[in-house]
Design a protein that fits this description.
By secondary structure, this protein is α+β, with helices and mostly antiparallel strands. The protein contains five helices and five strands; from the N terminus they run αααβαββαββ. Helices cover about 40% and strands about 20% of the residues.
Length: about 170
């Protein structure tokens, strides 16, 4: 009889451990999706793109000495895999540099005269991890309330997206 009691106790403990420690989906079977701050409408995106064309394109193309079909880049594309891999890489690298990664910052740059012919003097965009210096013993409320996000020193930027010359959604 003792053996049966141990078997039943083992089954109960196993069931409880499975319930509490195994990952499970949310009750409705879906992953919770949170709309990020800053999401805009398609109409607003078109307006911003049209404004860039009206107020910046001539000056940028003139500065890049590009005319006609050889206009300067105005957007950069990274694949979803590249973005996800970069975020994981940047989080790991930031942690190893003593920073808690809190976001990314996107910069505009220019390849310059020493780039290959297809990129020479054209605009590019690159992203850099931002974060806060990790403090030993700091509680999470104080750390998140400080707000001193900076580019992570030594954090590797991501460049080399594919660039384009046409406007929004073209």
């Amino acid at each position: 009889m003792k053996n049966i009691a141990y078997i039943i106790l083992g089954i109960i403990i196993g069931a409880l451990a499975t319930y509490f420690f195994c990952p499970r989906q949310m009750e409705n079977g879906d992953i919770k999706i949170v709309k990020p701050k800053g999401v805009i409408t398609v109409e607003k995106a078109w307006e911003l793109d049209d404004n860039w064309t009206e107020f910046r394109q001539a000056a940028v193309d003139s500065a890049a000495k590009k005319q006609g079909r050889d206009k300067d880049n105005r957007w950069t594309h990274w694949s979803l895999d590249d973005i996800e891999n970069y975020l994981a890489f940047a989080k790991h690298q930031s942690d190893s540099l003593g920073y808690k990664m809190t976001g990314i910052r996107v910069y505009l740059g220019v390849y310059g005269k020493n780039a290959d012919v297809s990129k020479k003097d054209l605009t590019t965009m690159f992203m850099v991890p931002t974060g806060k210096k990790a403090r030993a013993g700091a509680n999470s409320f104080f750390s998140s309330a400080v707000g001193n996000e900076e580019d992570v020193p030594g954090g590797s930027p991501l460049n080399e997206g594919s660039g384009g010359k046409e406007g929004y959604n073209n």
